[in-house]
Design brief:
By secondary structure, this protein is of the alpha+beta class. Helices cover 27% and strands 30% of the residues.
Length: 407
C-alpha cells in the first residue's frame, strides 16, 4: 500500500464474536462455516480496535484500521476524516438466542470523560470492571432479520402506573414512583440490597416460572421474559436478578423483518430474541443494568440513563434508487443503513463519497467498479471514497449496506 490506491473496491472479512447469549447455527450458516460448540453471537464488520475486519488487497491482507491509518483520505474521504478521524461506524449481524444484558450507552461528551478517567486510574481496557472501552458515543439502529423482540425505554407514565398497580409484588414501589418519578423508582430497585430484591421478586418468580415452563405466556407479556430470565439463570431462585424489574418497567417491542428501531444515548434497552442487522457508532461502551453476571456500576448507570417515558417508534425504510434500495433514516451523523434488493436484470448504481461496507444476506451479486467482485451469501465488500460502482445479479440478491450518515 505504498503507492496511491488505484483500486477502491475490496473484499472484506469480518470477525465472529462468541458471546454466551448467541445462537449456534445462524451466523455459521450465513458465513458458510461449520457450526461449533461455541455460540456465534455477532459478526463484526468495521475498524474497531478490538476486532478489526480484514481487507484483501492486491498487496496482501491488511486490517481495516491499519488501512485507514495508512490512507485515511483515500479510504474515508476528506470530509469524514476531518469530522471523525476514523471509520465512524461499526456494522454487525446479531443472533440473539438468550436475552442480552439491560444496557445504556453514554453520550459522546460523557464517553470522552469516562474513558480518560478510567485510563488515568490505570484500569486495563480488558478489565471486567471497566465501563469505557473507548472515547465514543454509541447510538445504534437495528433492522430486524426475523421476528425480533427487545426492551426499549421506560413505559409511558400511564402504562407504568398500571403495571405498578396490577403486579402485586410491586405495590410497595407505587408510592416511590408517585413521589420521585422514573429516576426515584429505578434508583430504588437498582440500589436495593440483594436480600430485599429476593424478598420482593420471589413470589413473582414462583408465580411466573411455572406458567413460563408450561408455555402459557405470550411474548408480549413481561411475565414471559421474567420467566425466561429466571429459568436460564444458574442462580435460580437463590439470587434473583434485579433486571427483572426492568422487564416490567420498559416497553416490550416486537419488530418484523425489514423494520428498524433507533436507540440513542441514555435509552435503556435489551435485545431479547431474534436476528438483526445492527449499525452503530464505532464504540463498545456499555453501562449495564441487569440480566447479566457482568459488572454493573449503578452510580454510572444512573448518571447516563434518560428517565422519561418512551413511545416506541418503528422505522420503515424509505425507497430510493427507483425502489431498489430502502434507506433507514436516523438522527446519527455517524452512520446510515440501507437494504438493496435486486432481481435478475436490475442494476444498482452508486458513487461512494465516503467508505461503505456491504454484506450479501441472500443470493449472489456482482459488484463492478475499479475491480469486479463476485459475492455470495455471507461475503462482504468495502467500497472506498470516490468509487463509482454498480451491482447486478444472475438471480436475486439482498444486500445490507452501511456508510456514514450525512455524506
Amino acid at each position: 500500500m505504498t503507492t496511491a490506491m488505484e483500486r477502491k473496491l475490496f473484499r472484506l472479512e469480518g470477525k465472529v464474536q462468541h458471546y454466551a447469549w448467541g445462537g449456534y447455527t445462524y451466523i455459521p450458516a450465513l458465513l458458510g462455516i461449520p457450526a461449533g460448540n461455541t455460540p456465534s453471537a455477532e459478526y463484526w464488520m468495521g475498524a474497531h480496535q478490538s476486532a478489526p475486519s480484514q481487507v484483501i488487497t492486491p498487496g496482501g491482507t491488511i486490517t481495516l484500521d491499519k488501512l485507514i491509518q495508512e490512507r485515511p483520505q483515500e479510504v474515508l474521504g476528506e470530509a469524514v476524516w476531518q469530522r471523525f478521524g476514523q471509520l465512524p461506524y461499526l456494522f454487525k449481524i446479531l443472533d440473539v438466542k438468550d436475552m442480552l444484558s439491560i444496557q445504556v450507552h453514554p453520550s459522546k461528551t460523557e464517553a470522552e470523560k469516562g474513558f480518560a478517567r478510567e485510563n488515568e486510574a490505570g484500569i486495563p481496557l480488558n478489565a471486567p470492571d471497566r465501563n469505557y472501552k473507548d472515547a465514543n458515543h454509541k447510538p445504534e439502529i437495528m433492522v430486524a432479520l426475523s421476528d425480533f423482540w427487545l426492551l426499549h425505554g421506560f413505559l409511558p407514565h400511564d402504562a407504568l402506573q398500571q403495571v405498578l398497580k396490577t403486579v402485586p409484588e410491586f405495590a410497595t414501589l407505587t408510592s416511590i414512583y408517585e413521589q420521585e418519578g422514573y429516576k426515584g423508582l429505578y434508583k430504588a430497585v437498582m440500589e436495593m440490597p440483594q436480600e430485599q430484591v429476593n424478598t420482593l421478586l420471589r413470589p413473582l418468580a414462583e408465580r411466573v416460572l411455572p406458567a413460563y415452563q408450561a408455555n402459557q405466556l405470550d411474548k408480549s407479556d413481561p411475565a414471559f421474559w421474567a420467566g425466561r430470565a429466571i429459568a436460564n439463570d444458574p442462580e435460580g431462585m437463590n439470587r434473583l436478578d434485579r433486571g427483572i424489574f426492568s422487564i416490567y418497567f420498559f416497553n416490550i417491542m416486537n419488530v418484523q423483518p425489514g423494520e428498524a428501531v433507533f436507540q440513542d444515548a441514555g435509552i435503556p434497552h435489551a435485545y431479547l430474541e431474534g436476528q438483526n442487522v445492527e449499525l452503530m457508532a464505532n464504540s463498545d461502551n456499555v453501562l449495564r443494568g441487569g440480566l447479566t453476571p457482568k459488572h454493573i456500576d449503578v452510580p454510572e448507570l444512573l448518571k447516563h440513563t434518560r428517565f422519561e417515558g418512551v413511545h416506541p417508534v418503528i422505522i420503515q425504510g424509505s425507497a430510493v434508487q427507483d425502489g431498489l434500495e430502502q434507506l433507514y433514516h436516523s438522527p446519527a451523523p455517524d452512520f446510515a443503513a440501507s437494504k438493496i434488493e435486486l432481481q435478475k436484470g436490475q442494476v444498482y448504481k452508486s458513487t461512494s463519497n465516503a467508505a461503505a461496507i456491504l454484506i450479501v444476506m441472500k443470493g449472489t451479486a456482482t459488484i463492478t467498479g475499479s475491480d469486479t467482485l463476485a459475492l455470495h451469501k455471507g461475503q462482504c465488500a468495502l467500497v472506498t471514497n470516490g468509487e463509482h460502482y454498480q451491482i447486478s445479479t444472475d438471480n436475486e440478491v439482498v444486500i445490507f449496506k452501511a456508510g456514514p450518515g450525512q455524506f
